[in-house]
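Hi R.,

Here's the input for the thymidine-5'-diphosphate complex you asked about:
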Amino acid sequence: MQFNIEDCRIVELPIVHNDNGNITVMENSVDLPFDINRIYYLYDVPMGAERGGHAHYKLQQYVVAASGSFTFILDDGQNKKEVFLNHPNKALHIVPGIWREMKDFSSGSICLVLASIAYSEDDYIRDYQDFKNYRKNG
Ligand code: TYD
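And here is the predicted structure with thymidine-5'-diphosphate in place:
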């Protein structure tokens, strides 16, 4: 099954409010449509830097602006959309088969990623033409 960019949605996560600070929780089988097998976070991104430039065959992700803000550009081979993330209780669900680029990282921003599978270079499509062929021919 092929997904498209409309399947990449912003999910509002619950907040445990407290005058002394909030907590947001993501728990397998409760708040997530996949089980977390890996967590990583991107930080110390220099001003003006762009990242990403790849798609994945199987990987699903929840991406959260744990601090600051940044923009994801999502592309399903037909359509593109930009998603601005700037709050720790909003996660962007990225489904398989979507080309993504990231830009406009604010100073000190932290991009937290909850990933459905372990890291494997075999799951990456890093060439845009390969991605277009994959979307066309499967
Ligand atoms: P990449 O996913 O291309 O980064 P981004 O999409 O943020 O630009 O990964 C950059 C490098 O980091 C790449 O050489 C592989 C390595 N890496 C790991 O070793 N493990 C991981 O879980 C991730 C996400 C990346």
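One thing worth noting: Strands lie at 10-12, 38-42, 51-56, 61-67, 70-75, 80-85, 90-94, 99-103, 110-115, 124-125.

Cheers,
M.
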